[in-house]
Fold this sequence. Notes:
This protein is an alpha+beta fold and 297 residues long. The protein has helices at 61-76, 95-107, 171-184, 202-214, 267-270, and strands at residues 2-4, 40-41, 56-60, 90-94, 111-120, 127-136, 145-147, 197-201, 221-228, 246-255, 261-263, 282-285, 288-290.
Amino acid sequence: MRTISFGLIIAVALLISCSDEPSSDNSNVNSAKSVDPSIKKTSIPDSTIDCSGVGNLVVDSAVADAMIKLFSKHYIKEGSATPILDLEKSVWIDSCVIAGFTKYFKDHNDFDGARFYSGAKSSNNKSTIILTPTTKNTGSGSNKHLDALSANITVEPINCNKEFKNFNLSENEFHRLKDKFNHDFRKNNLVDSLSISVWISSCVFTGLTELIRANNTLLDGVNVYFAAYDELKPSGRRGQKYKHQSTIIIVPTMPNRRGGHRDNWEILKVSPLYQKYINFDGGFNHGELCPDVCNEG
Length: 297
């Protein structure tokens, strides 16, 4: 993994995929490369986007692939006699939704990012993601960010498909989805390493929006994958408590021929925005993990 001090795109590790969305073509998640566990520093300046102190981690596609597969093995129990099939691997989020959050953060300086909560749908029991903006916590609580469920994110253009709809939820709907995930998959907190949420800085949304706008003929959104770490490294990962704790990886996508979305791991190294600093295929693994209590003031 490689460290970056600048809001970019994200390949964030937390795999989910909404079953009511078109299926994604994720065949190029894999690569024949060997996993390089070393962390290499890059020198992307933060003059454009202030992401100081956040520590974006750029993940080589082979490393990301290993983290995604570890989530499937450890949590979904893929290949076992009793796999947990309702625990999805990825969720696709429209570019216009990412842009809507970016504009809201720009217009409201007290907002500092968003939490990617894990939820579960009553309609089919499948897991999903809930996107909730946050404000800076100026109180004495242990969490640095507070959920702002009353925020109203405007998505433009109006004719945006908005396949991803889990934002601007009422407090009751938010808790219904979140509590069902806790009951169904975390077994009422017994599976504590399955993170309740991952917090992402507003600067990452800004960088992601800039990347999509610069490549708007190629990119249509992002895949948010669930992944898991293979080692305990709390000093380098804010909020990590467990060896195989889940996280998320965010990968830019482009339309495929079947009406779905295909991962574009190469966009970092070919985009004029980042090619000076990144010469490998990959995505972003960045955020603050929340194993248990996420929103105490």
